[in-house]
Request: fold
Amino acid sequence: MKTDKFQNKYRIPSARAVWHDYNDGNYFITICTKNREHYFGEIVNGEMILNDLGIKLNELIVEIPSHHPYAKTPVYQIMPNHLHLIVCIDGSRVACRDVACRVSTGETGENNKMQNIAEQCGLVSIAMGGMKSALTNHAHSNKIPFGWQTRFHDHIIRDQEEWERIANYIKNNPASWENDKFYTE
Reply:
């Protein structure tokens, strides 16, 4: 990271791999809710029962490829206070590289600043940020208390064996909820 401060506030250095651009590949993503609050429903007898906000999150996950054609989410599990996904990014499906065609390529002011930020974060962050933003906007417009933890955890999936191990973990997460590191009552 070039600076320790942004808008005069200290920043936590990125945990992202500096040698990887996050514009291609398969990723294991975990996104937590703010303070690990149970916003999406509850586990009952080893099965996740989604509430209204959890149902909306499920819809948004299914819609990711509609908004971001380069992204697919073949495996995911919504938990009471977090979300696990395998996200597959195919950077060759991006028609233009100016922040996935979302920001003007103008050279002035805020647009240029936002373009530079988004280009640094990669397509994974753009897709996950879009989903997080859409759910936050839905919650706020419906006066539902809600918040995400800033950032998200990611792991680059390197081979088929790792893919299968992670996919099994995600699918079985509700059944092993009480042993999960994100477990809270």
User: Anything to note?
Assistant: The mean pLDDT is 81. The domain at 16-174 is CATH 3.30.70.1290 (Alpha-Beta Plaits).
